[in-house]
Write a structure and sequence with these properties.
Length: 146
């Protein structure tokens, strides 16, 4: 059994949202073979407590807006060291860098297959879109400036 299409779509959207808030070291882990309650763990880091909370909030907002999904459970928002967001098929772990190193979930779940997050493709698409917009805004060489 592998992660459902819905879980993968939620994971990619959550990863993009986290990326918008400068989350680092993101990884998606397919835990569907091992856990009965989730298909994917998304693990991300923030440099400080405020960033951790901001990343978690952006993920919640994005999944609510784009998929109509609310977190079933949310823990860790008091301290901002490790925020856990449970969306059912997807469980998001947003760590402060030091906490992530200490708990090392990737080591614990090292046998889980990696879920591609699509961040490189999204960055390329954004760059291409920005490049096209610049070309459209440039005046033609044949036209004289007014």
């Amino acid at each position: 059994m592998t992660a459902s299409e819905n879980a993968i779509a939620l994971t990619k959207a959550a990863a993009l949202a986290a990326d918008e808030r400068q989350a680092t070291e993101q990884i998606g882990l397919d835990v569907s073979e091992t856990l009965p309650y989730a298909d994917v763990f998304l693990v991300a880091s923030g440099r400080n407590e405020r960033m951790v909370l901001s990343i978690a909030e952006e993920i919640e907002d994005k999944l609510r807006e784009d998929f109509g999904v609310k977190s079933l459970r949310k823990e860790g928002t008091e301290l901002g060291c490790w925020v856990l967001l449970d969306f059912g098929d997807l469980v998001v772990h947003v760590f402060h860098e030091e906490e992530r190193e200490y708990y090392s979930l990737e080591r614990l779940w090292r046998d889980a297959p990696i879920v591609p997050l699509g961040l490189a493709e999204a960055a390329e698409a954004a760059a291409a879109s920005a490049s096209e917009a610049e070309v459209e805004d440039e005046p033609d060489a044949d036209q004289a400036p007014e």
